[in-house]
Amino acid sequence: MGFSEEKAVVVFSGGQDSTTCLFWALEQFQEVTAVTFDYGQRHDNEIETARDIAADLGVEHHVLDMSLLNQLAPNALTRDDMEVKEGEDGELPSTFVEGRNLLFFSFASILASQKGAKHVVTGVCETDYSGYPDCRDVFVKSLNVTLNLAVGKEFVLHTPLMWLDKKETWELADKLGRLTYVKDNTLTCYHGIRGNGCGECPACKLRRAGYEQYMQEKERELE
Fold first, then answer.
1. Would the annotation count 198 as a binding residue?
2. Which pLDDT does position 11 carry in this prediction?
3. pLDDT value of position 54
4. Which of 103, 105, 81 has the alpha carbon at shortest distance from 94?
5. Which letter does DSSP use for residue 73 in this model?
6. Which member of 82, 90, 97, 216 lies 3.0 to 4.6 Å from 76 by CB, making a disulfide possible if both were Cys?
């Protein structure tokens, strides 16, 4: 199969960031495929949300079994008996899944190779990344080189949100004409509630703060 500049695979969780990236990719590339990884998340709602959004947008969607992550790296996103809490004293949050992006990006690139897609799009960012080492720009650039050597193709890993905070991510969604869609249909909440979520978990607080900051800025510009 040929290797196309016009094809992309988006690592897609159905959350705010990856959905914004999906809309970004649909603007950039002629053919877009979304891939979601089932790694034993506490809430099936995440996978169902991804399926629903992909179907609504008419995007080809794959769900890949990555349950080995749950065996290797216990974390609060997969274990009911672990509390969702932010990191203290320099420690990573309980929601950090060791090796997740290393595996996700690698498998997404293998799928991209099968699809003849040159581009792989992910929603990681350093600005609001809670200290996750596998969300850093240096990691993505390093992995990009490694994947090219491993597969023998010139993939390009895109991270449209790398240097954006949550306010700026909402702004990007708005520029793409999809702010309301992202707000109402995505799932960011650690407790599996779509849209505005529970409002109390770290993910919901970060999402809401960014939205309020963006709307306040937008209102000031309209005055």
1. yes
2. 98
3. 98
4. 81
5. S
6. 82
